Target: Sensory neuron membrane protein 2
Amino acid sequence: MSLIFPSPENRCYCDEENVENCLKGGVRDMTPCLNAPIIASFPHLYLADKEYQSYITGLHPNKTLHETYVDIDPLTGYPLQGAKRMQLNMFLEKIDGVDILANVSTGLLPLVWIEEGLAVNEELLNKFGEAHHKIYMLKAATVAFIILCIIVALCALVLYLYMEKLFCFKNITSNRVVALFQMSWQKDKTDGVSKATLSTIPADSLYGDSSYGNRGHYPHQLVHRSNNAI
Model:
């Protein structure tokens, strides 16, 4: 037979033989630590069970005012501000022979709540702002550099493909790479004039197809005069 506890998170603090006395959610029994019947909770019984909150009038639980928190800078991991908030309570119940408690009902009575907190000053906050600005600028510069490298690489690839197509062509049949242009030099010893002939490669040597062989060469002469004639 499984036992049903009022609050599963408090199960390890409960006596399985006396489940009725287990605490409900949102509070913690500090008796073993303090040797006193003290129950700890957030101020105004924030996050405590509705039964505890309804026992006393005038409670106004609020997350912003009554929750324990720490604000940590996500880039540096430095704590910027925080607060620790706790309320001490005790169970009030009817005790025979005590007149002041003769007509009370059993419930959780708040005694006092405590808050400890800290926050960095404005000067330190400004330094954090400067650090954030530098880090963001560094990230932006890194991204810009990567984009620039990609653009340069693409431009280099396009230029390489263009130059390969302009000056070189792969023979489809033999997979050879041949030049589209052929240049030959001839020097006339009588007048010291050097002549260069720039010829295109026959189409059949490019394509491996004799049907293009009738195109032949297309020579173009370039004349260079040298002062040192032989």
In short: The two ends are 120 Å apart (CA to CA). Residues 122-167 form the longest helix (46 residues).
